[in-house]
Structures are given as C-alpha cells and as structure tokens.
Amino acid sequence: MSWYLPEKVEIKEVGPRDGFQMEKAFIPTKEKIRIINALSETGVSAIQVTSVVHPKAVPQLIDAEEVMANIERKEGVSYSVLVPNICGAERAIPMKADEWELMLSVSESHSLANANRSVDDSLKIMEEVVHLANAHNVSVRGGMATALGCPFEGRIPFERIHYVAEAYYQMGVRAFSVADTVGVADPKLVYETISQLKALFPDADINLHLHNTRGMALANVIAGLQAGVTSFDASVGGLGGCPYAPNATGNVATEDIVHMLERMGVQTGINLRKLLAVSRDVEKLVDHPLESAVSRAGTADELHQAPTRQMKIGE
Amino acid sequence: MSWYLPEKVEIKEVGPRDGFQMEKAFIPTKEKIRIINALSETGVSAIQVTSVVHPKAVPQLIDAEEVMANIERKEGVSYSVLVPNICGAERAIPMKADEWELMLSVSESHSLANANRSVDDSLKIMEEVVHLANAHNVSVRGGMATALGCPFEGRIPFERIHYVAEAYYQMGVRAFSVADTVGVADPKLVYETISQLKALFPDADINLHLHNTRGMALANVIAGLQAGVTSFDASVGGLGGCPYAPNATGNVATEDIVHMLERMGVQTGINLRKLLAVSRDVEKLVDHPLESAVSRAGTADELHQAPTRQMKIGE
User: Fold this and answer.
1) Is 0.90 topped by the overall pTM?
2) Which of B152, B263, B298 is closest, CB to CB, to A303?
C-alpha cells in the first residue's frame, strides 16, 4: 500500500501560450486577456501568458506586449513569458513577468530546425538571457524541449539532457522544465529521466511539460509524481499540439490533470468547477471541440439517478 | 530507479464484445468473424468474442452462436464469452469457449438497474453457472462490474468488493476481473484496491478492465502494473463506451496500451503494426472516428525528416 504521492503540486497553465499559438485563427487580444483573467480566478498558481518570439515565426502571439500590459495580475499567481533568445529577453524586460521561461531544444536536429542554431549556440545565448534576467530581478526556468523525445532523432540519450541541465546549472539556473514536446515519452522514461536529474541536481526544481499525443500524458504524470516532480504544465481544454501529428491531441488538459490529482487527494489549489467554466468559454472561442476527456465526459463525482423502471437484461 | 514493471502482460481483446455491443449499427456477422480472425493473427493471447446475453437486451450480439461457431480458433489464443446468467450459460455450453466470464455488478443499485436483481441473487446465480462450467470443463473468471465506481453510488467501499470476491472464491473461482465500468477510477484507487485484493487472495489471477472515459486509463494501467496486475482488457480502436457519458471515450484502446507497454519494454506478444491494420479496418467498418490516440497520431518511433531549409524562429 506504499504508493508515493505528494500532498500538493503546482499546475502551470500554458494554454495562453502553447495553446493559442497553435490555433489557426488569431485569438483577439481582448479575448486572450479575458481568458487569462478568468484562469487567474481558478486558483491556478502560475500562468504562462505569452511568448516573446519573433512575430513572423509565431504571428498568433504578436500581441505579447499588449496582453502582458493589460491582464489583471492576481496576488499569488506567477505570470511568466517564454523567452527563446536575446531579442526576446529585451522585449520581455518592460513586461515585468514573474518568470522567464528559457527555451532551447536538447536534440541537435530539432535545435537546428526550430531555432536555426546548435544546442551549444543556444546555450551561449541563454547565458546572456540569464544575465539580463538577473539584472532585472526576474526568476528563470531552463526549458528543455525534445528532452523526452525528438521527432527527427527519436529517444535522446540521457547524457544530452544532463549536458544541457549542467550548462543551465552553471549559469545559476535552479529550475528546469523537462518537455515531451511531441508526446512520445512513456512513464518508464519519465521516471528514469527525472530520477537521474534529481540525483544529479538535488537542489533543482523540476517541472514536467507533457503532451497527450499518444494518450500517455496522465500516466507520465503518475511517473513524474513518483520520481518527485511537483510542478506540471497543462493547457486548458488540451489546447496545443504538434506539427508532426496534426490530428493528434495536444498538451495534457488542465481539467484532466486537476481532475485526476484531486481524485487522488493531491491538492492543486484549482477549483475544477471554475476551470471547466473557462474551458467551455475557450471552446466557444476556438470554435472546435476540445481535447479534454473531462470536459467531454464530466467529472467522476457526477452521480446519475438510478432508473426507477428497471430494464430486465438476460434470463 | 526502482520502479517496478513486470516483464510481460496478457492483453485480452474485448472489442468484439464490449465494443461491438455499443455500436448503433449492427455489425454484420461475417464482418465480426473477419475482425476476430484478424485479431487472432496479431499475437493477442485472449479474445472476448461475444456475450450470451438476451438478444432483446443486446441485439447487437444476437449472432453469438454463429460467431463462435465460425471463427478460426488459433492455437495459443483463449476465446471467451461473457455469461451473465444461467440461461446464457446453457447457451454457452455448446459454444466450447475456453473461458466463461461471469458478470455481475458489485454495487447494489447498478445490479438492480442493469440485471434487475440484487448482488446476492446474482451471486446465487453465478454459483450455478460455475457448477455448469465445472461440469463442462470450462475455465471461469469472476467479473466485478462497477467495482471501481458506480454511476449511481459513486465510490464503492472496498468491503463490497471483498464481499463479492470472497463469494466467488468460495465457489472455487480463482480468476477475477475488476472493472471500471464507467471510467471513474483513479490510479490511487486502482493501486489500493488491487493491492488489498492481492493480499486477501494471493492465489487469484486478477485482471483489470479499464475505460478511458476521463483520460485516466493508461495511468490506471501503470497503477495496476505496480500493484501486480498482469492481465488487462482492451478494445481495438477504443470501441465501447458508457451510456452515462455518451460523448466520451470508451474502453482503453488496445493500440494505446500495447504501444505504451512495448515502449517500456513490457512484452504483450502483440504485433502493433498488425494491430493498427486491424484498427484501420475496424474504423471503416464502424464508420466513425476511433478513440485511440496511437491510431490518430502514429507510434512514437515513427521518425520525421528534419527540414533541409531551416525556418528561422526568433532573433
């Protein structure tokens, strides 16, 4: 009966960034702000608001400045932006985010394809970004895209993850985000990767960024919890996705992870009822069905009325 | 790094019964036979072929006799039928199934609503069914519907599961199937329920029947594996469902469970490529999209070509 689960975890809502950037139709700025404000009221402890990526690369988030300037910041909620380079960092300074989420790919081929530079070149850039963050008193988290699998290279040797984590650590970064960018990680890989990272960097705060592309996201959450992770990214409605699997599900849905954790007595601080209301609102906004099991099926504690007239089966 | 996983597990394909019975359109008998024969060639170790329930209750399986008489039985594959009552058992005798899967609901209200009799009355009937099975040398497995949650009562106290398991055990039944009939179980509940059952019935073979209604099926597989379960029901394409959540996903998809297990090095004996071919065939047959993440997204080991012309993001 000794099945380890933590008492509470932190959920970071990444829908406004990782979700909205994958929507074909541009989400109007005022709608983005409205949804982010509604998410702030659910009890979530952190929201990844936007990304300071070049507007040509991600036109959906061209309004990063306007969004960051106009959301209502609720006390106790950490508002972060994704920072992929120095130009982005300079844009991010006046936004006064609580956290910058640094982003690079652990796999060489994905780094070249996505950012047009090697992993080592990305690390040099991240070092400068960390200096800027320190100069402006912003926390940083070292993101590791494709750490749990690359669409071009497949499984990534742990040595490569260790290499990037060590480089981040040498820059003074003490918070990592280990990403299953294309949804290929299995629970054993998650457990082993996190366990090894925690053994090597016992003072680091490790977050898991999971996609449900092959249905394994909640199983990977369990593996992560058992390896000691207490911070998970999730996207309202399961928004987001992967360009290599266009029909597939995206980020693990916030509703689904919160529902599972709360059922097990692991506290998230999130009011699921409020979150499901935001999710219904998001569904209208994006105008396509959401990839969240709980928003489709309802919560497990919704009881039904037993039929009064019984149907006789068999005999 | 001590994360327990078994070397191999048994997957029982239940699509032909639990899946086909939920399809609105009747699947023609010869198509059922063709799919079952194709499933037999995937390496699966057991198939639940049909149910000997009253045709008025489940008209989709009215052809149980014809299907059982005409499938090609492959050596090494166990072919079972679901037997809910004595009338069904009598129908099942000439079918010469390898196993009868007894079925009753652990929750009183579900038992009354679904079978129009109390749990105790069902147990008395099952005792007679077991006598018939013994007389005809057929193995039996004691099914426990709603053991992991009831649509009318919610969570079922473990004492009720214990009560039914003990009654089965007293009849000589040494194989159980613990069902999450409406897809409400969470991993902690699965782990604790199975651990307690295994402690009380150390010589029993325990199977888990999981639905993915709230996205937790693969997480529950992990919990089950860690509690020592090595037999899982699964349905090709995720066919099946639950009348109380009509838009929701159904049984855990065979493709998804096999994909996850094989990625972790847990052997299922199933050739995933062959299974995915059957799944595509089933999708054409049922004429609606399947609820299998892997059939939508492809397997995690399918690598993509890195783009030669690199798109510059950021900077």
Assistant:
1) yes
2) B152
- Partners of residue A111 in chain B, C-beta under 8 Å: none
The interface predicted TM-score (ipTM) is 0.95
Contact assignment for B314 to A256 by CB distance below 8 Å: no
Q: Could you tell me the two tokens for A32?
A: 């983005």
The three state secondary structure string of A150-206 is ECCCECCCHHHHHHHHHHHHHCCCCEEEEECCCCCCCHHHHHHHHHHHHHHCCCCEE
Taking each continuous run of H as one helix and of E as one strand, the counts in chain B are 11, 8
Reported confidence tier of residue A247, pLDDT bands at 50, 70, 90: confident
Q: Tell me which H or E stretch contains A103.
A: strand A99-105
Contact check, Cβ <8 Å, A260/B214: yes
Q: Are B80 and B47 in contact (CB under 8 A)?
A: yes
A158 contacts: CB under 8 Å, gap ≥ 6: A192, A193, A196
**At A264, which amino acid appears?**
M
The one catalytic residue in B242, B252, B260, B286 is: B242
Strand partners, A267: A8
Report the distance separating Cα B53 and Cα B58, nearest Å: 7
Residues A51-94 have pLDDT tens digits of: 999 999 899 999 999 999 999 999 999 999 999 999 999 999 99
Mind giving me the DSSP string for A264-302? Answer: TT-B----HHHHHHHHHHHHHHHTS----HHHHH--TT-
Closest CA to A84 of A137, A140, A129: A129
Say if residues A311 and B251 touch (Cβ distance below 8 Å).
no
Which domains does chain B possess? 10-297 (3.20.20.70)
Instruction: Return the structure tokens found at B206.
Output: 């325990």
Average pLDDT over residues B80-101: 97
- Chain A neighbors of B115, CB-CB under 8 A: 312-314
- Which residues are bridge partners to B207 per DSSP? B177, B231
Q: Report residue B133 as tokens.
A: 């099975």
B69 three-class SS: helix
Distance (Å, whole) CA A178 – CA A220: 12
